[in-house]
Amino acid sequence: MLATVSDKKVGIDTDSDGIYDYFQAEVVSASDYYPFGMLMPGRQVGMGINIPGGEVSGTTEVNGYQLPVDLVLSSRSGIEPSEYVASNSIELSGEFESGATDEFDAYIADESYAGTGNQYTGGGMYGTAGVYRYGFNGKENDNEVKGTGNQQDYGMRIHDPRLGRFLSVDPLFKSYTMLTPYQYSSNSPIGSIDLDGEESKVVVHIFGTSQSKPILTIEKEDNNIPIQDGFHYEVHQYKTFNNGKVLNTSTYNYIVDDNTGKKVFLFGGLASAEKAHSSPFGFRLSKTSISTISAPWMTIAEKEIGQVEIKEKNKHNERIIEYHSTTSGKFQDDETAWCSSFVNWTMEKAGYSGTGSARALSWKDWGKSTGGEPVFGAIAVIDYGGGKGHVGFVTAIDGDNITILLGGNQGDQVKESKFKRKDIIDYRVPSKYTIPSSDRQLKKKSIKGNKETQKSTR
């Protein structure tokens, strides 16, 4: 069900004393959909036909245009619309009046109807069919192409909800070879939302138990602990496939404000969620707060290990282009230096705002400094001079002079690499992040390969 509510207040006078007792929102339209987004016949209210001074009974499609079946007009303000149109009948009630110089047409549409009726100045149609442009999944309708709700723009591709298919090939089809390149939400429209024509997102509510060792379970409503009114929990799950096999599954947990839609990142991975306990606001980790979770963005970053540039001419890794999309540059290749883009993407997925810049040195003033101390998950900033630099996440140390960073564009891929500690000018963490004491004790680790340089990180 998708309902469109206007900002108009409808006054209700229950005892006819001329004083409104309360107000109701004006529901301009409400529509039921099949799983892939096709409108259910006869399951719409209004469908955007909201003609001033008119009462609509039923809607239908005539020559690709949505029209009232029956229209009763009781008043008219100004000189618009210049044409009233319906498919079955138009009735002027006893209260209806028009000005002396006010002229308009009223007629029943047939298959030659060209969509000129029920319009206001500027060519728009009264109601959401012409003004409110969005439909299923909040995506923009292209009603003028195939009729109301029969084509939608998802950004990356165009979707036909009647077919449950996109009209062009999935830009990420090489990573999802088990699926048709025209599929919608990985052919799972009940459990998934298609984000933008590229990836599907699984969204479910989380409920907790009142056992001695509380856990989070998915779609388990018995013994659930209600959270604060106006909020709910979501699990966002992303899966990456290759030749029919799941390479990795990324699970991110959020608490969501129902009024604003704002998401607060809780923790990554259901394994961490098993440590949660209930509180009046929701779930928090045992004996700690959300802000003291061990670098939650690292769970996300680690699952990207192995993403690598494609060396073939005119071919690029779509995942790296996705990293770039979180920066102002929005580069469409995997050759432009992308270490900062990777860090921006990771922090955004974790619910933090990054710098929005593809420049590595943009991170030197971001968040707050650790005081020069390398701690797990901190963003290490390297300055090579001349405006050139590199950024990555601290994971470990190798002796007194080497810091190991997990980052992008390290040897053209996401991996752990060794860096000279003297080249790192600072370590940064989010402003409101509290560093757990355990993260100050970095693990000692030895990895193969030479130390990264300006050339190997471009």
In words, what does this structure look like?
- The chain has 458 residues and is mainly beta.
- Among the domains are: 205-293, no CATH class; 308-457, endopeptidase fold (from Nostoc punctiforme), CATH 3.90.1720.
- It contains six helices and 28 strands.
- The chain has helices spanning 143-146, 270-273, 297-302, 318-324, 339-349, 454-457, and strands at 2-12, 22-33, 39-45, 54-62, 65-73, 83-86, 89-92, 105-108, 140-141, 152-153, 158-160, 165-166, 192-194, 200-204, 206-208, 216-218, 231-242, 245-257, 263-268, 276-278, 283-285, 368-369, 379-385, 388-397, 402-407, 415-420, 424-429, 443-444.
- The strands form eight sheets. Strands 22, 23, 24, 25, 26, 27 and 28 form a seven-stranded mixed sheet that branches. It has a five-stranded antiparallel sheet with strand order 13-14-17-18-19. The protein has a four-stranded antiparallel sheet with strand order 9-10-11-12, with no helix packed on it.
- The protein is elongated, with a radius of gyration of 28 Å.
- The two termini are 50 Å apart.
- Mean pLDDT is 75; it is low at 121-131, 204-227 and 267-292.
